[in-house]
Records
---
Amino acid sequence: NAGVTQTPKFQVLKTGQSMTLQCAQDMNHEYMSWYRQDPGMGLRLIHYSVGAGITDQGEVPNGYNVSRSTTEDFPLRLLSAAPSQTSVYFCASSYSGTGLDGYTFGSGTRLTVV
Amino acid sequence: AQSVSQHNHHVILSEAASLELGCNYSYGGTVNLFWYVQYPGQHLQLLLKYFSGDPLVKGIKGFEAEFIKSKFSFNLRKPSVQWSDTAEYLCAVTPKGTGRRALTFGSGTRLQVQP
């Protein structure tokens, strides 16, 4: 089924560990983005990409890295996890980025850093 | 960069009460406007969107929103809520021209409908 696939669904990390959250879409969308959702703060944009090889920072980029080597994949890397990064992470993709054609969201990754 | 404010963080209503959730945005140009809903344990779902034309837009499940350009607002309304409307409601924008091509969300409003 076409859509946005996020893996893993759940993850527990120790402080200082690194990991990569995977995001893949099969809809040939140019625009992809990562959000974190925290209680009372809505969804905050971490990084986004307007196409392969092009990424930019969002509102809360510190502590996260991204790359976009293919149209399909947009992984999010935590280099040294901190408890403040405990959150639910969502990946989203869109054809135009304007929302005119809609955004597709992944099912989320719940990350706990202890 | 664009920003979105939702001033109602937690709203509690009884069934059949009317609902209005506030959303204001800040941006130097024109924007597209959205309301999303997130039911407990579920994905984000688009309720309605505004791009141009009639500033009163109707969405799914009886929701509507009105874009008031002079107030930079896009408030969500429903005449009579149901227990099943209990959810998180998020307002979002994207720029029409150049600018960050990603949804920018407000902080969300948690709606609790009591039977």
---
Amino acid sequence: NAGVMQNPRHLVRRRGQEARLRCSPMKGHSHVYWYRQLPEEGLKFMVYLQKENIIDESGMPKERFSAEFPKEGPSILRIQQVVRGDSAAYFCASSPEGYQPQHFGDGTRLSIL
Amino acid sequence: EDQVTQSPEALRLQEGESSSLNCSYTVSGLRGLFWYRQDPGKGPEFLFTLYSAGEEKEKERLKATLTKKESFLHITAPKPEDSATYLCAVQASSGSRLTFGEGTQLTVNP
């Protein structure tokens, strides 16, 4: 049983570049969540998606950040024109239904030079 | 706004020395309270879900309990491999997002 798969595990970008983070949910899970963990801070919710739909994006920064979960393929978190403050660990989680426990991947560590 | 506060921030125990971690919460209608374990460089690993006051769940040396305002994670006779950061999160009945506390970093010395 493969767990939640995130790639890349580590990503280095220069200021102004784009970062694309990918997440494949556990088999049988159609609900995907993205969380961000800033240095010395707790996990913060960003966005909740189902296939082809954004259900809750109340935690997403208003600019430069977007997320999608297409009918086929992984969920993508996209950060345009990255800045130093975007350096963090980004975690994806999935669940079979929205009210069931969320299972997490091992994250993507994003570093901005 | 939902809030979760965990205490202590850090806890050092000797192997076999039992203790409890606290999670205080405020939420507008609790759907569930979740405990996770996180090892360095890894994602949170799901441990328990508690849904209503008075509920208890157990797994090996861990036991989670829930009241209307807080949850406790009791660790009985811990071993060094129990060393990790333990995270508490709440899910409101109005949505699916988890609101996390900042965690308790547990170190168990042999």
---
Amino acid sequence: DTEVTQTPKHLVMGMTNKKSLKCEQHMGHRAMYWYKQKAKKPPELMFVYSYEKLSINESVPSRFSPECPNSSLLNLHLHALQPEDSALYLCASSPGGGRSEQYFGPGTRLTVT
Amino acid sequence: GQQLNQSPQSMFIQEGEDVSMNCTSSSIFNTWLWYKQDPGEGPVLLIALYKAGELTSNGRLTAQFGITRKDSFLNISASIPSDVGIYFCAGLNTNAGKSTFGDGTTLTVKP
């Protein structure tokens, strides 16, 4: 099983709203990632969690707040977003232990109004 | 930072034709990955390459890890309409913990 699940599939939120994106994997992977992707562009790395600890933050604005409650779950908390934050948000996981191929979820299409 | 040059940017081919795309970098990577992405979906891993010179196949897809560790190519043989999509390469070094993506190759297959 190489499945990463993400909820919700679509999200529309106002600039004053607070919402959360959720990601789950049951492959025993030790690293999890959040990416942002604009149309026809490659994914842009936002955060990396390794063994449930934040290891990389690519200078992401504080209105995006990641959380890793356990080794299978990854959340992205959103607050006071801007219209330019509208994008496809992708979660990925990788096995660790020398194997670094990343498996992506289907993404959450976020629209900020 | 590290950058990947992926080419071609787009391809328009007839069903049944073979396709080749490649990625080059000025930096060395110890892993090369190839993904396919359909509109509105997440990238799907096609092939992972871990050794310089490695040649790996997955059905009609074949990818190679360049001997210099600075490049990789992906070939698709006998293309079919469902091959349509955007193909991304990604290079990474395990210790760095993050991937560098190419800008993608958009493939259109005409029946």
